[in-house]
Amino acid sequence: MHVTFQLATEIEAALLVAAAAAGLADAADFKPDVRTAEARHGDFQANGVLGYAKARKLNPRAVAEQLVAALSPALRDASDVAIAGPGFINFTLKPAVLLAWLRQFGTAPALRAGAAAAHAGQTWVVDYSSPNTAKQMHVGHLRSAVIGEAICRLLEFTGAKVIRDNHLGDWGTQFGKLIYGYKRWADPAALAADAIEELERLYKLGNNATPDGSPELDEARAELVKLQQGDSENVALWQKFSDVSLAAFQKIYDRLGIRFDHNLGESFYNDKVERIYRELTETGLAQESEGALVVFHPEHPRFKTQPFIVRKADGASNYASTDLATAAYRAEHFKADGIVVVTDFRQADHFEQLYLTVRKWFAAKNYRLPELHHVTFGAVTGEDGKALKTRSGDVIRLKALLDEAEDRAYAIVLEKNPDLPEDERREIARIVGIGAVQYADLSQNRSSNYVFSWDKMLALDGNTAPYLLYAVARIHSIFRKAGVAPGDAAAEAGATSPETAAEISLARKLTKFPDAVRLAGESLRPHFLGLYLFELAGEYSSFNNADKVLVDEPAVRARRLLLCARTLLLLETGLGLLGLRTLTRM
RNA sequence: GUCCCCGUAGCUCAACUGGAUAGAGCACCUGCCUUCUAAGCAGGUGGUUGUGGGUUCGAUUCCCGCCGGGGACGCCA
User: Fold this and answer.
1) CB of A469 within 8 A of CB of A476?
2) How confident is the model at residue A391 (pLDDT cuts 50, 70, 90)?
């Protein structure tokens, strides 16, 4: 039997054929709207009949009956078809079809090939994490990094060439103060021990020593001017700041499984802004206002009066100028088909103005316009809704958060599995602890603020990474005991179609993986995949509890081993797409 | 003042972008380990989806008005 990766798409196509065959009035306008259904209704449901019938003042159930009568024999053989409610068409796949799908998409390459159609041949630039240099990363930097990496992996899996670009905050007035502090108070021993810690201290000293209106502030500004004019000493210092910062960031990124292709920060675009001023002016988009160069958007309720300032009155560039230059660079140099920027929601206005401007600018110059996306999330705050602080008043550092996560996970491992070797306990603690932190951000879809809580971030019960990892570990355990590798062809050879309620329920869930990946990829919301994996792990756990795998009957054993192998494949693949590592034992 | 986001069970969150009886976890209660890992499974208690209208076959979802929380609004990024 032939099955496709996206069964929903296959059913949708069959319904379109049926619409034409049934002679529906303007059948070409009929949109089947097939989606995954709640299990009690079937595997997939077509909702399109309702809207179609309503627009033409037809009885939706009668239209549904016409369509069902005209369905291809292949689809009628493959599924139970039922008309329900006001006019839904429900499709429940037969066990033999479930088995066929599981056999056809039984390997990682097969899954990847099936999913790759969505963004095949496209190049996407993803801009995420983007911390400021010379400062430690804190918990506020976590979400962009975790969500951004998951989006990268989803885009790659769905066929795109992904360019990971860390748009560092590595330019601006703060460097004058940092250089001022560095030249006076730098402690070589502290720099050697923990460079970024020392840079933070020097920045604070520099900042405190240069209050508004002071001659010290003029000196700090002079340092900045020297840097901008290419003074060799200051440029060398700036380079050193960048180097030690990136090295420190990479230690965090390594723990999160992140590696950037480029670190093109604001400094990279600093000399690419003249063109922006010129082209925005010559296309009539920008105008002088109070000495600055600004863009208004007359069609917009607020941006018709709220300016997008692309050049300051003193002639200097700002965030807007470099972001415009960045968009052009990504479109032209990387030939991006899509650009994704991941930041917290407070920058929503800025990006709305930016993208409005880019669209008009590119249209006026006849440049090829990539898809432009701003992926937002809520800010991380303390219990009081204000910026997050520890008891001592400092922000919580990302390193401390990850350390704490591993420590808590280690304590649980010691309690649950004291007999494992120490090395393995540590490895489990790393994967479970970091995974819990990642999943805390990937399991929810909220643009409201995120109130930080250690217990929430490091929760190990319920809808968390450990629950998913535990299901993975249990499946590995079964294969260890069976003495075969997951996916072993001989072990699965005699598999029959799923039969028991738990087998069928699990098999049905497995076939929904493509829909979860599609949904998460198209909407750039990884939590849809997280939700699916959680539900899949739940189905597996129920199955694991209800049906013993390693039984004597060869056909039953084979089909259950197949179900285990596919569950493992999809859980490991899916968790990998979210950026989590998995275990074989825990 | 203008505009944006958010408000769902005691708590933390879902709800496939308008679909069917709004679902999970935590907490609380009842069962299940001589049986592939109990970091688990089965079940129970818990809802006027902030609020009042509107749109329609159908609204947590869209529109309007309130209430509450957060945010952005001319030279920071």
Assistant:
1) no
2) low
